[in-house]
RNA sequence: GCCCCCAUGGUCUAGUGGUUAGGACGCCUCCCUUUCACGGAGGAGAUCGCCGGUUCGAGCCCGGCUGGGGGUACCA
């Protein structure tokens, strides 16, 4: 099996594209039917025949996003524009064989043709001496294929326009280049988004004209935004880069987008890449579009985050935040965050001092006897030795017992004093990590307000 | 308009002729409990888009309809 992912570098790598790449990767990395460790090769090709919109920056960005996701390729990246000589050769062949012809017909001509022959009648041009190149489409029969996800799909040839496969300047167009490249790369399975399903008959016709056997096809359902429309920028984070910046883990992104459109097990949702590769099957892929739900991504991300060792999580958080020495804080925060981005707002006070939240201060310390209990806490902690989460806990709990108040009435003022807010990692652990000096200084500062 | 695809709670899914229609996210309640989470126990939420048909029996098979989506470039 040889599969490929062929993005066009006209923008960042979108989530939908990432999923197509992932499914191809899973296909190639799953165990082979004959017991091979790997089922096949994953080829990366850059669809850059549109010189106007393709940029080097976008290529670099896409490669970077794929690398971050861990979707490494076995061959490529192949630049489609780099195959121009081969495209021209194939084009000349079709022209010589009479499978294609020059035509100067414009979009208006095509419209006029349909007005005359019926809206469901595909355009048929007259061969001319020059102009763009169109492929001859038969008037009879169907161009059909067995889609590995959807089953039989067919298009009546009579309704298909003779597609333009090369511009008047001789440069080839997408549907032609794709077929030639898939042929040359010996691609056996084309797995791509459903937005390409109506391109498939055109490509099949190119293969037929070339007299070769086409690959098999599988069209994945599209990803939609909450409004039911194709996922795009206006739905928020729509690119892999944005997901990365939002603090999601690549393994969680892969897990979630793989789940969108296929289940791997009836009652399980947490999977590693190798588990997914092992279980992935095209015929298990859903045929209906799925709505991208960032809340569920957050949930899955939290699970992957907690599955990481503290050392590994620390390394990722230090990379993400650009700070170092985070291990202790990570240890006491890891149960409380869902994304890498959640960490700093929760634990940043341990490094940069308390957050500024006057409302929390007034509510917890500035009223209800908060100052008094805080002062008691200061006294209890001032000479505490050793200064560990355990000793801090028993010291503070003694205050609770002695004064007969609810635990929160003692813990919350301390929390606000050191963190500035009412949300933080466990209070004993936080105090212990800060150490006696800093804790006392922070309590004094709060008492002085 | 034309061509094509799709249709199970708000969302993602399991289910392939006989189930109290299962699970997950989200939401609600409770437990745990120092906040927030995590974890645990419950709960609300689906006439399986609609109408016909096949069948003793249909979410599952067939047809029509409706709704949604994609495509419709000398873009990819």
Fold and architecture overview:
Helix content is 47%, strand content 12%. With 449 residues, it is mostly helical. It has two domains: 2-224, Rossmann fold (3-Layer(aba) Sandwich); 348-447, Arc Repressor Mutant, subunit A (Orthogonal Bundle), CATH 1.10.10. The strands form five sheets. It has a three-stranded parallel sheet with strand order 1-2-3. Strand 2, helix 2 and strand 3 (75-79) form a beta-alpha-beta unit. The radius of gyration is 31 Å and the shape is elongated. The mean pLDDT is 93.
Give a short overview.
The protein is mainly alpha-helical. The chain contains 20 helices and twelve strands.
- Biggest β-sheet: strands ordered side by side in the sheet: 1-2-3
Q: How many individual domains?
A: 2
State the helix count: 20
Major sheet details: 3 strands, parallel
Output the radius of gyration: 31 Å
The third-level CATH topology of the largest domain is Rossmann fold
> Can you name the CATH architecture of the largest domain?
3-Layer(aba) Sandwich
CATH class of the largest domain: Alpha Beta
CATH homologous superfamily identity of the largest domain: HUPs
Helix and strand composition category: mainly alpha
Q: Estimate percent helicity.
A: 40-55%
């Amino acid at each position: 099996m040889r599969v490929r992912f062929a993005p066009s570098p006209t923008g960042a790598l979108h989530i939908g594209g990432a999923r197509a790449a992932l499914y191809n990767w899973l296909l190639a990395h799953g165990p082979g039917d004959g017991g091979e460790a790997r089922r096949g090769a994953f080829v990366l090709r850059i669809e850059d025949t549109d010189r106007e919109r393709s940029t080097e920056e976008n290529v670099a960005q896409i490669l970077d996003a794929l690398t971050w996701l861990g979707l490494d390729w076995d061959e490529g990246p192949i630049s489609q524009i780099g195959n121009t000589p081969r495209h021209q050769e194939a084009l000349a062949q079709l022209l010589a064989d009479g499978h294609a012809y020059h035509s100067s017909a414009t979009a208006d001509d095509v419209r006029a043709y349909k007005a005359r022959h019926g809206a469901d009648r595909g355009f048929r041009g007259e061969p001319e001496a020059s102009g763009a190149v169109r492929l001859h489409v038969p008037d009879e029969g169907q161009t059909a294929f067995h889609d590995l996800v959807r089953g039989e799909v067919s298009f009546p040839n009579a309704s298909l326009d003779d597609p333009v496969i090369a511009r008047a300047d001789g440069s080839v167009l997408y549907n032609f280049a794709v077929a030639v490249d898939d042929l040359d790369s010996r691609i056996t399975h084309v797995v791509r988004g459903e937005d390409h399903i109506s391109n498939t008959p055109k490509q099949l016709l190119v293969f037929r004209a070339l007299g070769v056997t086409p690959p098999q096809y599988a069209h994945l359902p599209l990803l939609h935004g909450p409004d039911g429309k194709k996922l795009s920028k206006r739905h928020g984070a729509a690119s892999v880069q944005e997901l990365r910046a939002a603090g999601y883990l690549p393994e969680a992104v892969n897990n979630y987008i793989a789940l969108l459109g296929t289940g791997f097990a009836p009652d399980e949702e947490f999977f590693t890449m190798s588990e997914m590769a092992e279980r992935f099957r095209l015929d298990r892929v859903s045929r209906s579009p799925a709505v991208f739900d960032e809340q569920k991504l957050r949930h899955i991300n939290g699970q992957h985050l907690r599955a990481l060792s503290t050392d590994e999580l620390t390394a990722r958080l230090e990379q993400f935040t650009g700070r170092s020495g985070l291990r202790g804080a990570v240890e006491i925060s890891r149960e409380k965050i869902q994304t890498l981005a959640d960490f700093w707002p929760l634990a940043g006070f341990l490094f940069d001092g308390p957050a500024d939240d006057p409302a929390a201060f007034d509510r917890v310390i500035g009223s209800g006897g908060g100052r008094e209990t805080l002062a008691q806490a200061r006294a209890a902690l001032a000479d505490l030795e050793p200064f560990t989460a355990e000793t801090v806990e028993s010291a503070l709990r003694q205050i609770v017992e002695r004064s007969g108040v609810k635990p929160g009435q003692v813990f919350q003022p301390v929390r606000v004093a050191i963190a500035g807010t009412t949300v933080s990692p466990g209070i004993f652990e936080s105090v212990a990590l800060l150490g006696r000096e800093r804790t006392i200084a922070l309590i004094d500062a709060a008492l002085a307000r």
